[in-house]
Amino acid sequence: VSFRLEGKDAKQLKEVAAKLKEKLNTMEGVGDVNDSMQSATVVNNQMVNNQMVNNQMVSNQMIQVRILMEMKPLLRTKKTVIKLHESLSQL
């Protein structure tokens, strides 16, 4: 399972990711929750009226949360997925 959070405010994304990780770590069947963050700057050089214009745009911050579930019998895994769905709908 992988979640991708995007937005321009890195602080807000980190807060959302922390709340999501905290909730997921309390759930049965969730073995490991990892996150990573990426950001990038796009540089676009253009000629406007014979002058070089340097436009820089900071792209969206992205936090990815990956969840590795433990191997369990199929019936128990289905129950865990249902509980995961119910918990996420409350966020």
What would you note in describing this structure?
With 91 residues, the chain is α+β, with helices and mostly antiparallel strands. It has one domain (2-89). The protein is built from 2 helices and 5 strands, in the order βαββββα. The protein has helices at residues 10-25, 74-89, and strands at residues 2-7, 30-38, 41-48, 51-58, 61-69. The protein is elongated. The relative contact order is 0.27.
How is this structure best summarized?
With 91 residues, the protein is α+β, with helices and mostly antiparallel strands. It has 2 helices and 5 strands; from the N terminus they run βαββββα. The protein has helices spanning 10-25, 74-89; strands at residues 2-7, 30-38, 41-48, 51-58, 61-69.
The succession of helices and strands, N to C, reads: EHEEEEH
Strand content: 35-45%
- In the predicted model, the low-confidence regions spanning at least 5 consecutive residues are none
DSSP summary: helix tally: 2
Largest sheet: 3 strands, antiparallel
Helix content: 25-40%
Computed Rg: 20 Å
Residue-averaged pLDDT: 65
Amino-to-carboxy terminus distance: 17 Å
**Strand order in the largest sheet:** 1-5-2
Number of domains: 1
Structural class: alpha+beta
Q: State the total count of DSSP E strands.
A: 5
Shape: elongated
